[in-house]
Design a protein that fits this description.
The complex is a heterodimer of chains A (253) and B (302). Chain A is α/β, with parallel strands linked by helices and 253 residues long. Chain A is built from six helices and 15 strands. Chain B has one domain (5-54, 68-193, 213-295): TIM Barrel. In chain B, helix 2 links the parallel strand 7 and strand 8. Classes of the chains: A alpha/beta (253), B alpha/beta (302). The structure holds flavin-adenine dinucleotide, flavin mononucleotide (FMN) and FE2/S2 (inorganic) cluster.
Chain lengths: 253, 302
């Protein structure tokens, strides 16, 4: 597979709440090669390092990215408008493993970890259960879009919407209703740990998407180290090429 | 138009080399453009045994640059020779092995192993700021630097380039020591020691607290050191540190570099080397310069 890099037009922009945005970017060649769970590395003028952002959805022409303002770079990114161009490097990373579309899967997302799971909701449709956690009602994103594809349940930390509690609580409930073939999870570390523990207890394979600071995004610089266990030995794998999706038993969370 | 340069008997089709630690073992940027476009590749730093490197975070952004604290993560010389180097067989670009060790004996061992390999050139890394033992300790002391080079020289007839650390007060005396000890060429600079702190957590951004600074921010320092060293030694000098555009390369070469290496700039724009080559050729055409060698060391200092 070749890597692609170039400047591509932003064709649509959405703002969900005070700090979360969605960009649709027309980049046919890159979009055609992208699979769910992969990411792009975005160059923002004035910043030396690119910013990794997961692909939320794709079709044959367009990639959709959803991101939250976290610091100076993402703030600058949010200022881009339709018609302007974004410099993308991608598609990067391994993506989520593919199961037969009939497989029963659970999509567990927390906060800004929710968007990359939307592509999976489209693949597995009604065989998927999405468990989405947010801080509160104001930070809720994409709930309607998930609900249009699959069984969708929402938790908020403060109980202002849906289930009062964490995604782990929703997961326990979902598992009490019946088994699942795989859990896909993306979100804060504490959430991933909780999900991985429950998966382990219930003997369900679990894939987690993790984050680490990056430079090249393609395996050339080795900065994006992540503790993993392979053949009983602890090693540093690299999130940009060995990940961002790891088996929950293999990655040290 | 001639872009070819010769360093320690090795012919580079052009003076653009990818810097060690920034281009893996050559395969990654080959997915953007064939490595044959490049004069050479300086491969990821190698040690006698596998090293896992430092805990993350290993990278921090800085104004016009970055800090890294990778800590020489590499599979070790055996795995490199068995698994990585064969992938470069038959590829028409100069392959440089970047070698480090924790002791003089380890450097000597690296030279011995590489001597028996099809590698084109050895770059002794006596300047890594991210490892506890060896690394920069050898590059900041004239007699230690000379010991390493003498020991490696005994074990290899391959062209031996020595990569210097900028974290010294007198770069010229280090350069002269390695020249006297038998180095065939010098490359400089490795990264400068730096630091960033997250003001909300009061924690350093890097898990190692400190790390090596590279990128455009270091260019003027690198240029100054290349100029000083090129004026003081007879062996060829390869310049690096902060190069991001063709003008930087011309500047480095006018200062005395026979070739250059490109590191951190790759992360922002993977096509940097290709764009630089285009820029250099256009500039030479405009200026009526037919041989790039004509500009090397042509600075007219006051
Ligand atoms: C594989 C992957 C996928 C991601 N997908 C998304 C996504 O879909 N949506 C989204 O909003 N965010 C995503 N992130 C996180 C996003 O990369 C960071 O929020 C962003 O880099 C912050 O940049 P900044 O300039 O605003 O923050 P600053 O804190 O100013 O950034 C300083 C440096 O730290 C790095 N950095 C800071 N936080 C992170 C982080 N959490 N992960 C990696 N690098 C970080 C920056 O890239 C930059 O190099 C993803 C991260 C990774 C690794
Ligand atoms: C992520 C990273 C890893 C590096 N690893 C090595 C290494 O293994 N050996 C070495 O000699 N230099 C290493 N360096 C230093 C570079 O080769 C180069 O000397 C330095 O980055 C300055 O050049 P630049 O500004 O073009 O990046 C590394 C630099 C970076 C950014
Ligand atoms: S970011 Fe360079 S190896 Fe992962």
């Amino acid at each position: 597979m070749a890597y692609l890099q170039g400047s591509f037009p932003i064709i649509q922009k959405q703002q969900f709440n005070s700090d979360t945005y969605s960009f649709y970017i027309r980049c046919p060649e890159m979009a055609a090669q992208t699979v769910p769970g992969q990411f792009v590395n975005l160059k923002i003028p004035g910043f030396s390092l690119r910013r990794p952002i997961s692909v939320c959805q794709r079709d044959d022409e367009v990639l959709r990215l959803v991101f939250q303002i976290r610091g100076e770079g993402t703030k600058e990114l949010a200022a881009l408008e339709p018609g302007m161009k974004a410099d993308l490097l991608g598609p990067l990373g391994n993506g989520f493993p593919q199961l037969p579309p009939k497989a029963k899967v659970i999509l567990a997302g927390g906060g800004i970890g929710v968007p990359p799971l939307l592509a999976l909701a489209q693949v597995y449709g009604r065989n998927a259960t999405a468990l989405l956690g947010f801080r509160n009602k104001e930070s809720l994103i994409l709930e309607g879009e998930f609900a249009a594809e699959c069984d969708t349940r929402v938790a908020t930390d403060d109980g202002s919407f849906g289930y009062h509690g964490f995604v782990t609580g929703l997961l326990e409930r979902r598992l009490s209703e019946g088994p699942a073939d795989m859990i896909f999870a993306c979100g804060p570390l504490a959430m991933l740990k909780g999900i991985a523990d429950i998966a382990e207890k219930n003997q369900i394979p679990c894939k987690v998407s993790v984050e680490e600071r990056m430079a090249c995004g393609i395996g050339a610089c080795l900065v994006c180290a992540c503790r993993t266990v392979r053949d009983g030995k602890e090693i540093y794998s690299h999130v940009c090429t060995d990940g961002p999706v790891f088996d929950s038993r293999e990655v040290v969370l | 138009m001639n872009l070819e340069v010769k360093i320690a008997g090795v012919t580079f089709k052009n003076p653009i080399i990818l810097a060690s630690g920034c281009c893996g073992f050559g395969q990654e940027y080959d997915k953007f453009y064939p490595m044959e476009a490049l004069g050479g590749l300086s491969l990821k730093g190698l040690t006698p045994n596998e090293r896992q490197g430092n805990p993350p975070p290993r990278v921090a952004e800085t104004p016009s640059g970055m800090l890294n604290s990778v800590g020489l993560q590499n599979p070790g010389i055996d795995a490199f020779l068995e698994r990585e180097l064969p992938n470069l067989a038959g590829r028409d670009t100069v392959k440089i092995a970047n070698a480090a060790g924790a002791t003089v004996e380890e450097y000597a061992y690296m030279a011995q192993r590489l001597d028996a390999s099809p590698i084109d050139m050895i770059e002794a890394n006596i300047s890594c700021p991210n490892v506890k033992q060896g690394g920069a300790a050898f590059g900041t002391d004239c007699s230690m630097a000379a010991q390493v080079v003498t020991a490696m020289r005994k074990n290899t007839t391959k062209p031996l380039m020595v990569k210097l650390s900028p974290n010294v007060t007198d770069i010229v005396s280090i350069a002269k020591s390695v020249e006297d000890a038998g180095a065939d060429a010098i490359s400089l600079i490795n990264t400068l020691l730096g630091m960033r702190i997250d003001i909300s957590t009061r924690r350093p951004v890097l898990h190692q607290n400190v790390g090596g600074l590279s990128g455009p921010a270091v260019f003027p320092i690198a240029l100054r050191m290349v100029w000083q060293v090129a004026g003081a030694v007879k062996i060829p000098v390869v310049g690096l540190g902060g190069i991001a555009k063709w003008q930087d390369v011309i500047e480095m070469m006018i200062a005395g570099a026979k070739a250059v290496q490109i590191g951190a700039a790759l992360f922002g724009d993977p096509f940097t080397p290709v764009k630089i080559l285009e820029g250099i050729q256009q500039w030479m055409e405009q200026k009526g310069i037919s041989d790039i060698n004509d500009i090397i060391g042509s600075v007219q200092p006051y």
